[in-house]
Amino acid sequence: MNYTSLESKIKNLIDRKSEGEYWDFKQEWHKDNERLLHDILCFANTVHDKDSYLIIGVSDTGEIVGVGEENRRKQVDILDLLSNTVFAGDNIPEVRLDTIEIEGKEIDILTIFNSYTVPYYLKAKCKRYNNIREGYIYTRVGDRNTPINQNASIQQIEMLWKKRFGLTQPPLVQIANRLENKLEWAQNEDAYYNIYKPEFKLEAEYDEDDRNIGEFYVYSQTNSRFMYKNLKIMCSETVLKEFQLVVLDSGRYETPIPRWGFAGYDEWRHNHKFTYKYFLKDSIDYKLQQFLFDTENEEEVYAKRRFDEVVLYYENEEEKIAFEFYVENKQSLIESYIVEADKKFYEINTNNELEAKECKRRLSTGLALNRALQEFRALYK
């Protein structure tokens, strides 16, 4: 189990004392693979956007009994089951098996990850299986699975196909997902539009506010000249969301402005000790950054590399919270890293001594926290 709060999630679900649309209790492991496969298919084919959980070692009423050794599976057993199943389109659900301990008892957690390549169904079934059907689509609605000898309803199947094509999500989420495929977008000067859904547009214009004070990371670049843009994400003529972009290294690299982060406290716990900038990899601003980044442009690649040295990238909000808690307990270590990072030279072009000192501190903090983040991930991998 990694540093994300899987244990906390499962405890909260067990405390509800009932099953739901994305979790199910099992007192013991399935006696045969056919029923296990049916459960996996039902949870893989969900319209919602959550990961789903088979919680094994808990009764239907939420009583923690612990998982027994009889029929107990390992990760390799689950993967073998799925790889030996003939799925339509070779489209295989993604799963992971973890074991946690609650009240001194082991519980197995089979996570079935959310996917947009639904529906999953069998092209052919194993000869040993008597009940599961090829070509049938199984799903879960509320706390009930589609019976193993029945097909999901037309309405449920329609919703799964809509999910596959992004039609169950609001326009902003659809645009964010489509940003991951640059081939879907055409450029017209400072604007982009989606070639399959031309009403989805990105429009950028230079910020007319002539500010000459940049954030600390502008001095991470070879050339500290910078400018700002405003970018609008639009559906037809409706502005769905606006972002501020910063153009760095005299025009070589542009990115959405990263978010502010704060970690650690002074001895009186009045002020944060470490101020830094970050992105969440599951956020739309990160997807925008990746969309705008030209990996074929060597100057842009170099500028981004220098930018990334002093800006943090988290997998998600959970990792951010966990890392900041880690930093809270490692403040002396972080300070020693900052002292080492201070040795790196940055040309800070400002006549304001206080501003230069603050920029240098934040550049060194970014370097130090990135070093600590690597160690944190290695420790909790």
UniProtKB/TrEMBL annotation:
InterPro entries: Schlafen_AlbA_2_dom, Schlafen_AlbA_2_dom_sf. It comes from the Bacteria. Residues 19-149 form the Schlafen AlbA-2 domain. Pfam families: SLFN_AlbA_2. PANTHER family: GLPR-RELATED TRANSCRIPTIONAL REPRESSOR, SCHLAFEN ALBA-2 DOMAIN-CONTAINING PROTEIN. This is Transcriptional regulator. It comes from Thermoanaerobacterium thermosaccharolyticum.
